[in-house]
Amino acid sequence: MPPVLRSHTKRLAATAEPASLSKQMTSGSPGAKPLASSSSSRRTQPRKNTTVAEKGFAENEDDVPFPFVRRPLIKPSLEKIRREAVDQGIPEREIDDYASFTFSIQTSVYNYHVVAEKCRQALDDPSMCRVSNMTRGDGSTRHYQIMPFSDSGRYPWEAPYNLPKIKNLCILNSLSMRELSWYLQGYHMPVPPTRAERIALMKEYMGITPNVDAQYLLA
């Protein structure tokens, strides 16, 4: 056979082997392995959109705890002081005297803080802001007045709260469930489960009249 024909025959045999191999791998034989998908097929697959909830952001989650600056007062307990004395290794014959003395000191400090808290709450009376907000409609022309939070004396838009400032009705209606919850907790008010109830409580606390919504929608 001439050399040209031999080289042509070798090329035909070389191209026939991959074809038979791919046919064998796709025929479902026991030893066959599936072909890996090409990069082009992977590129054509739709990409999954990751939502805020899937990313794990806690920005607007309702279960984020309120950042109390001053924790609620805890009344002293004589039994708790006795247990602490035992844990500290105080001799048993001295525990009663130690517990009585410590309990009297903690009780005096507790009573002092109770009186101070009542005076501070009297100064934080929101009635003046409430009366002023009643004359401001939806707050678009004259912004609402906001009281500082009861537990810290800080305003809601300051750290550690960093909440939106409720200047008008539009901002109040756009607050998230977490932001509404923090506003209500900051003013020592109950937190209802629904959004409508939370907004209604905030309107009542701020002094926003009930018919403002209808005026706001018609504007």
From TrEMBL:
Question: Source organism's superkingdom?
Answer: Eukaryota
What are the Mug135-like C-terminal domain coordinates in residue numbering? Answer: 132-208
Q: Where is there biased composition of kind Polar residues?
A: 36-52
One Pfam family linked to the record: Mug135_C
| Spans annotated as Disordered | 1-57
Similarity-based family:
Belongs to the UPF0612 family.
Name the record gives this protein:
Mug135-like C-terminal domain-containing protein
Q: Which organism is it from?
A: Schizophyllum amplum
